[in-house]
């Protein structure tokens, strides 16, 4: 059950890594999954933009790209790339705490691996609801440390 955090082309130190790992395992379990190998890669806007162009043929900036490497049902494996610059900008735009926005985006990637989509309005609403639930779970776990 490996959960790893990496940095690509910038320096970023995720706060409370052990708590975040516990939370991700609990979140996956609540959705009926188990994490086998999950990599979060924190990077810049330009790094993630290039991944978007090269691998997804999308000429846009984004906050997250999730690659599902799962081969067995109910076991999660994946690589999740997150732009720290986009998180900071989104947090400012939404008048949100940067740390809370980081937690939201981290959960967003895991929720994609669990099968949630966000292309349609209905899917996006469900995804946002699941993100809100996951943020609540994170802070509940944090209080019980």
From TrEMBL:
Keywords: Cytoplasm, Endonuclease, Hydrolase, Metal-binding, Nuclease, Ribosome biogenesis, rRNA processing, Zinc. Belongs to the endoribonuclease YbeY family. The keyword Nuclease applies. Its cofactor is Zn(2+). HAMAP family: Endoribonucl_YbeY (MF_00009). Binds 1 zinc ion. It is found in: Cytoplasm. The keyword Transferase does not apply. SUPFAM superfamilies: Metalloproteases ('zincins'), catalytic domain (SSF55486). Zn(2+) binds at residues 108, 112, 118. Its EC number is 3.1.-.-. It is an enzyme of class 3 (hydrolase). Pfam families: YbeY. Single strand-specific metallo-endoribonuclease involved in late-stage 70S ribosome quality control and in maturation of the 3' terminus of the 16S rRNA. Transmembrane segments: none annotated. This is Endoribonuclease YbeY.
């Amino acid at each position: 059950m490996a959960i790893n955090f990496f940095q690509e082309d910038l320096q970023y130190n995720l706060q409370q890594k052990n708590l975040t790992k516990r939370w991700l395992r609990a979140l996956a379990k609540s959705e009926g999954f188990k994490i086998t190998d999950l990599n979060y890669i924190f990077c810049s806007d330009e790094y993630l933009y290039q991944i978007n162009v090269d691998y997804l043929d999308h000429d846009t900036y984004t906050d997250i790209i999730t690659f599902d490497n799962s081969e067995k049902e109910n076991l999660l494996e994946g690589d999740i790339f997150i732009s720290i610059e986009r998180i900071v900008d989104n947090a400012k735009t939404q008048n949100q705490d940067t740390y809370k926005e980081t937690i939201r985006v981290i959960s967003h990637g895991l929720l994609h691996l669990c099968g949630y989509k966000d292309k349609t309005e209905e899917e996006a609403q469900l995804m946002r609801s699941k993100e809100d639930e996951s943020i609540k779970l994170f802070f509940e776990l944090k209080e019980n440390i």
